[in-house]
Amino acid sequence: MRLLLIHARRFSYEVVKPAVEEPEPLGEAGGSGAFENTLVVFTSVEKGDDESVVPGAVSEILSVFNQVKASSIVVYPYAHLSQDLAPPFEAVKILGRLYAALKEAGVEAYKAPFGWYKAFTLECYGHPLSELSRSVRRSETGAR
Ligand SMILES: Nc1ncnc2c1ncn2[C@@H]1O[C@H](CO)[C@@H](NC(=O)[C@@H](N)CO)[C@H]1O
Q: Contact, 116 vs 15, CB < 8 A?
C-alpha cells in the first residue's frame, strides 16, 4: 500500500464521472466534499495487499495526524502511486477497512468515493511535515 499524506489548509473534491465498471455509490456525501485543516491521504492499494496492511497504515497516518495537528483525515482512493495496483474489487475492500479503522481510532475521518474520476482543489500548508509518503507492507504472518 502506498500513501501520499498532504496536510491541507483547504481540500475539496467533486466526482466527474465513473472510472470503473461499478463505482462506489455516492451516499450521503453526494459526490463532493470540502475540508479545512485536514490530512489528505492519497492511497494506492497494491497487488498482494490484504487486511494486514491496515494496522500499519493506521499507525503511520495517526502519527502524522497528531504531529501536524490536523482536525480531520480524508482517505482518498488514488490509483496513481504504484505501478502494481490491486484490482478494484480488492482495493475497495481494503480502503473500506482502513476508513473504518481510522473511525474506530476515534478521529474525524472521511472517505472520498471509490471508482470515480474526480476534480479536486488542494491547498497544502507547505510546512516541513505537510508532504510525506509512506509504503506499508502486509505482515508476513498475516496477523491483524
Ligand atoms: N488499487 C487501487 N487503489 C486505490 N484506488 C483504486 C485502485 N484501483 C482503482 N481505484 C479507484 O478506481 C479509480 C480508477 O482507477 C481510481 N480513481 C482515481 O484514482 C481518481 N483519483 C481519478 O484518477 C480510484 O478511485
A: yes
Write down the ipTM of this complex. 0.97
Is the CB of 113 within 6 Å of ligand 1? Answer: no
Q: Which residues face 32 on adjacent strands?
A: 14
Q: Residue 28 has what DSSP assignment?
A: G
State the Cα angle at 84 between 81 and 88, rounded to 5°.
85
Residue from 18, 1, 10 nearest 118 by CA: 18
Q: What is the model's pTM?
A: 0.95
Q: Which atom in ligand 1 lies closest to the alpha carbon of residue 78?
A: 19
Residue closest via CA to ligand 1's atom 7 equals 79
In tens, the pLDDT along 62-100 reads 999 999 999 999 999 999 999 999 999 999 999 999 999
